[in-house]
Write a structure and sequence with these properties.
28 strands; seven-stranded antiparallel β-sheet; Immunoglobulin-like; alpha/beta; TIM Barrel; 14 helices; binds calcium ion
């Protein structure tokens, strides 16, 4: 023992670094596995390891390793092994020894294919995962960022209901089925999306997450998926065979291809801000501590509210995030990314993501939550928070300002908002209309949250009234309804809220099923609620046909009229002017002079949040009424010649002059 210790070569010692900044940085793009039929090269970044092993398996989850091989220390903190064999079909893990202790096996963090439940990495030929015609797949045209209309949907919610008429329930393939109908014969699924007219489907987490046991597909497990396991692998439970590593990859691509063929772009919800577990995550088993932020006392910083937070400011974590989104954008043709708790990440990383995606295609959109779920040890001024959004050009943040002005506080289900008759929220609604920019007619001191403009242009803001978090719109409107409000009135509140979203200058976003008056039966955090709570009830398309037609009308009006998509702060300041309203709980504005080339010369939009009709003094002239009392008809509902115009209770009126 004594002699052996003296003979330890340097390669067996755990290198010590004074700080994470001193760790060597590997800048190659071949980490972990490079496969060809002739050979496989394994290269793992583990600078603090004293030994690293590669374990090869015949199966993705069963049986012991068929071979255990030692890796050799290589350049810049990496360990390497080259095997001159065709290893296609095999599985592998790495095992790292740090501080004289062998850590648990990990499939690595750059892993692109796995066996069931993502425990072992798989060696596959990625070119064999492409569906027929994949090389012809192109992103649907998108002229301008301001043209985007987002539709947020969970893979399972989309198709699980028996009345979806969809065969591949809960699967990626559900998005490939055309001709599906509800019980009453109306279009569901992808045909419904086309009919509605949205431009982008935003998928809730669809990378490999941990909370669903993929070996039990018939157990009706449900989770939103904010528990990342393998960032660069699709979720197995959404595939028809999670055991075969190629199947989930191919089916994900088939989904993207089908949506693209229907003219719809695809956004992925990405959750790089934390991992499902900390200590034994696939990241931490490679380089303990490096990928996470710790408090001075050595405990885990927890801005994610999930027990840990990643350290995007460290070179190799930043490299990982940037290369991961580029990978999804190129291998899977993904058209946009929604960053969960973006406020955890540092500004520099988010700008690096923008730069990298610009090189792939500048029309790829990026947006995120400009907040965290808890305090972080990393300085606020360096993080991608809403209040720092001016430093995030080309990246949008969700506007909780417009959201809660319209429907009331997310934290208090019983508190109503502007659309349910609350006055004093007019300035916040106006702030929402302009897209959180500087506008001379807004009194910023009277806003509910932010007290100043926080973006450079309105396309840096996502306008919405609800999403998967908290009560969905119909449930919130019910739980906060004023005394005596009828079901008919709640539908009015709903239409008014969405009219404001779609006539505002930020990028509109709706939560799937809102157009069918979706309810989650009052469950505000349905992240693991059963399908009976979460699934879209497609028969409601028929029950709430009028509401669906209204949403469709809003979308087609926005698409036909660039005045609602001015794009820049300068345009909005030039063309959008608010009218002085004498009645509380009313907001009105004009879009003038064929704004941004609009065929309508002047547009007048009036929102009446009062539960009674109000008389509004409007500019003189002949007006054509296209939206009134819960109906939209772009060819015209009536001609208006009076300056004393009456807006129906809880509704919007939109008029134009040629
Ligand atoms: Ca999984």
């Amino acid at each position: 023992m004594m002699l052996a210790t003296g003979l330890l070569c340097s390669c067996q010692k755990t290198p010590k670094y004074a700080s994470y900044d001193d760790y060597p940085i590997y800048d190659g793009s071949d980490l972990e596995l490079t496969y060809t039929p002739e050979a496989s090269t394994f290269k793992v970044w583990a600078p603090t390891a004293s030994e690293v092993k590669l374990l090869l398996y015949e199966d993705g989850s069963e049986d012991g390793a068929s071979r255990v091989l030692n890796m050799k220390r290589s350049e810049k903190g990496t360990w390497k092994l080259h095997i001159k064999e065709d290893l296609e079909g095999k599985f592998y893990t790495f095992q790292v020894k740090v501080n004289e202790r062998w850590l648990d096996e990990t499939p690595g963090m750059w892993v692109k294919a796995t066996g069931v439940n993502g425990k072992r990495a798989a060696i596959i030929d990625m070119s064999k995962t492409n569906p027929a015609g994949w090389e012809m797949d192109v992103r649907p045209p998108l002229k301008d960022e301001a043209d985007i209309i987002l539709y947020e949907v969970h893979v399972r919610d989309f198709s699980m209901s028996p009345n979806s008429g969809i065969k591949n329930k809960g699967k990626f393939l559900a998005f490939t089925e055309h001709g599906t109908k509800n019980t009453m014969g109306q279009a569901t699924g992808i045909d419904h999306l086309k009919e509605l007219g949205i431009t982008h489907v935003h998928l809730l987490p669809s990378f490999d997450f941990a909370s669903i046991d993929e070996t039990k597909p018939n157990d009706n497990q449900y989770n939103w998926g904010y528990d990342p396991l393998n960032y660069n692998v699709p979720e197995g439970s959404y595939s028809t065979n999670p055991y075969d590593p190629a199947v989930r990859i191919k089916e994900f691509k088939q989904m993207v291809q089908a949506l693209h063929q229907s003219g719809i772009r695809v956004v992925m919800d990405v959750v790089y801000n934390h991992t499902f577990i900390g200590e034994n995550s696939h990241l931490n088993l490679l380089v303990p501590g490096y990928f996470y932020r710790m408090k001075p006392d050595g405990s885990w910083s927890n801005a994610s509210g999930c027990g840990n937070e990643t350290a995007s400011e460290r070179a190799m974590m930043r490299k990982f995030i940037v290369e991961s989104v580029v990978y999804w954008a190129t291998e899977y043709h993904i058209d946009g990314f929604r960053f969960d708790l973006m406020g955890v990440h540092d500004i520099e990383t988010m700008n690096a993501v923008r730069l990298a995606l610009d090189k792939v295609d500048p029309s790829i959109c990026i947006y995120g939550e400009g907040w965290t779920a808890g305090p972080s040890v990393f300085p606020e001024e360096k993080r991608a928070l809403k209040k720092n959004a001016k430093q995030l050009d080309g990246i949008a943040v969700f506007s909780d300002d417009i959201r809660d002005a319209l429907k009331g506080s997310w934290q208090h289900p019983e508190i109503p908002g502007f659309v349910s008759g609350v006055d004093s929220l007019e300035e916040s609604v106006k702030f929402g209309v302009v897209g959180s920019i500087q506008h001379s007619q807004i009194d910023y001191s009277r806003l509910i949250y932010s007290k100043e403009p926080y973006v450079n242009d309105p396309t840096q803001v996502i306008s919405y009234v609800s999403c998967h978090d908290d009560l969905c719109l119909a449930d919130k409107l019910r739980s906060s309804k004023p005394a005596g409000a009828t079901d008919e009135e709640i539908l009015r509140f709903d239409k008014l809220a969405q009219t404001i979203v779609f006539t505002s200058q930020g990028i509109p976003f709706i939560y799937a099923g809102e157009e069918l008056f979706r309810t989650k039966k009052g469950v505000h955090n349905s992240y693991q609620s059963p399908d009976s709570i979460n699934q879209i009830n497609w028969d409601n398309k028929t029950v709430f046909q009028d509401l669906f037609e209204y949403y469709r009308g809003l979308i087609s009006m926005r698409k036909a009229h660039p005045a609602f998509r001015l794009g820049t702060q300068k345009n909005v300041q030039q063309y959008l002017h608010f009218l002085d309203m004498k009645t509380p709980n009313v907001v009105a504005f004009t879009l003038t002079d064929n704004a941004k080339g609009d065929t309508w010369r002047n547009i007048l939009v009036i929102y009446n949040g009062n539960r009674k009709s109000v008389m509004v003094e409007i500019p003189e002239g002949e007006w054509n009424l296209v939206c009134n009392d819960g109906k939209i008809n772009l060819t015209g509902i009536a001609q208006v010649k009076t300056t004393a115009f009456v807006v129906a209770p809880s509704s919007a009126s939109i008029l134009y002059q040629l």
